[in-house]
Design a protein that fits this description.
heterodimer, A: mainly beta, seven-stranded mixed β-sheet, four-stranded antiparallel β-sheet, B: about 110 residues, mainly beta, six-stranded mixed β-sheet
Chain lengths: ~120, ~110
């Protein structure tokens, strides 16, 4: 089954304790991205990657890091989490192709609470 | 600048009523794509529809229909004969041809009461 797998689904952590949220896709997609969802703000892009070793900042990259060492994986790293990073996080992937074939597959989300 | 506006923060209807969720977008690109996603209480994002800017045909899928009007930069979503299972947050999103990024509206929370 074509899917994007995020782990964990839920995470409660303390301020300053480094954490990684994993994201893996099995569709050989070139493009992967991280979004955070906050009430009243919709989803905002954190980082994206066009392919292996190619990453770039989105709209809200502060406090986050990413890496793309393999095509299928795109982990989100919070080196020193703070309470304002409490949010619902989504990983998404998409393949290249003709415009009519553009489609996005989202992971199930990771609900992160930083206390 | 590219932007998506969903002015309705929350809508509450009684089951079997029709309801329209508004979406207004801004872009200078001539080629772009519009999306609607549903987010049920369980939290995942469920893809509903993608519409290309060069295809202004309206679309109907069961109780769902979408009205795309380039003249008013709107892509509204109507649920006919709403059901309790339609209760969710609905997001409208925009993607330019020149970018992979999805630009989301702030979402509309729909509550369908029995």
């Amino acid at each position: 089954e074509a899917q994007v797998t995020q782990n964990p689904r839920y995470l409660i952590t303390v301020t300053g304790k480094k954490l990684t949220v994993t994201c893996s896709q099995n569709m050989n997609h070139e493009y992967m991205s991280w979004y955070r969802q906050d009430p009243g703000l919709g989803l905002r892009q954190i980082y994206y990657s066009m392919n292996v070793e190619v990453t770039d900042k989105g709209d809200v990259p502060e406090g986050y890091k990413v890496s793309r060492k393999e095509k299928r994986n795109f982990p989100l790293i919070l080196e020193s989490p703070s309470p304002n990073q409490t949010s619902l996080y989504f990983c998404a992937s998409s393949g290249s192709g003709t415009p009519r074939n553009y489609g996005y597959t989202f992971g199930s989300g990771t609900r992160l609470t930083v206390v | 600048a590219q932007k998506v506006t969903q002015a309705q923060t929350e809508i509450s209807v009684v089951e079997k009523e029709d309801v329209t969720l508004d979406c207004v977008y801004e872009t200078r690109d001539t080629t772009y794509y519009l999306f609607w996603y549903k987010q049920p209480p369980s939290g995942e994002l469920v893809f509903l529809i993608r519409r290309n800017s060069f295809d202004e045909q309206n679309e109907i899928s069961g109780r769902y229909s979408w009205n795309f009007q380039k003249s008013t930069s709107s892509f509204n979503f109507t649920i006919t004969a709403s059901q309790v299972v339609d209760s969710a947050v609905y997001f409208c999103a925009l993607k330019m041809d020149s970018s992979y990024k999805l630009i989301f509206g702030s979402g509309t929370r729909l509550l369908v009461r029995p």
